[in-house]
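REQUEST ID: PR-0412
SUBMITTED BY: lab tech R.K.
PRIORITY: routine
TASK: structure prediction, single protein chain
INPUT:
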Amino acid sequence: MTTFRTIDDLDSNQRLLARIDVNAPVEDGIVQANRRFARHAKTILELLDDDHAIALLAHQGRPGRNTFVSLEQHAGILGDYVDQTVDFVADTYGTDALVAIEELESDDVLLLENVRMCDGELPEEEPSVKAETEFVRTLAPMFDAYVGDAYSTAHRSHASIVGFPHVMDAYAGRVMEHEYSANSAIRERSFDGTVTMILGGRKAEDAIPIIERVADTVDQFCLGGIVGELFLRASGSDVGYDVEGTTLFDHQWEDHHETIERVLAAYGHRLFLPIDLAFEDENGTRTETPVEGITKKTSFLDIGSETAERYADLVSDSAAVFVKGALGVFEDERFADGTVDVLSAIADTDCFSVVGGGDTSRSIELYELDENDFSRVSIAGGAYTRALTGDPLIGIEVLDPNRNGEVTNH
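STATUS: complete
OUTPUT:
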């Protein structure tokens, strides 16, 4: 397990450069607050309590997408969470940014402009290469230490993630520390009882390696979503292919059916597949049908109630539960039952539980479940998947003060 120093190890009253991840939905040009702001605000508040002066690095969207906007609105949202002004400068390492950094005093917070708008941040390259960018060489001497708190992007070898800790004293913020601990638990901890994993979502290529990589520590897998249908197809059911208007299944089956069939043959006795599915009938009503004897004529949008009850029973008898991906199209309230019912069962069970994987954690907020009923609700997507499978997270590895030489993000 990678070791790193945390903000507990920092001397007080320093000038800090902190990388956070407040990448958020953007609707009609308006940035929407999400769980990430609240999580990073806790790190910022702790640093303010120790009289640090803080400059923040963050990104929003990717070049070419409509979510690729300035961070000016993010500063206002963050300010609400930390209950003080978060200053903003529309610059990252130019003259305006350097002047604003020079003027930082104890207990000040400054948000620099979207790092993906500056040269050197992208593409992914080795830490030693990123450390030589003008971006890093200009900003690093301005600070006493670097705080890496952007766990959600810890799998990305970008300059703001790996370049600064390559040349500066580096520490993990609270989000980085707690996310890494919770998401690595599946490989690092022992549990006195059954370990269950809920696997859903749209991407079979995400779920398949998880099953094979954690089979030594996970006792049973409950499948739903696109992943569940593809495994049902491999088991002989007439589902898991595209119908008119969909393009979700056939290409994934073509790319991964051999692996799905191999996983089913090796671990089939530990894989629980849906026994009923839900769809929208001609009246727009949720309707359920058993999988046995099924012929797919329309899109299935959720696991059925019998499947949800079965999965909930399995969860209730578990010592630990890890969730990756939704079991249905929970954004539509008619087809949220499977995801919400299973999450509710996890919340009601006295077990160690981690919920993650892109939008899945959003369902907790959407359906007013209590986040405190879970051990961890991860804000990470790709980094969460890599942690589950044991793949290295380069943004974590570069924080290790004992590392020797270069690290790579295989």
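NOTES: The chain has a mean pLDDT of 95.
REVIEWED BY: pending
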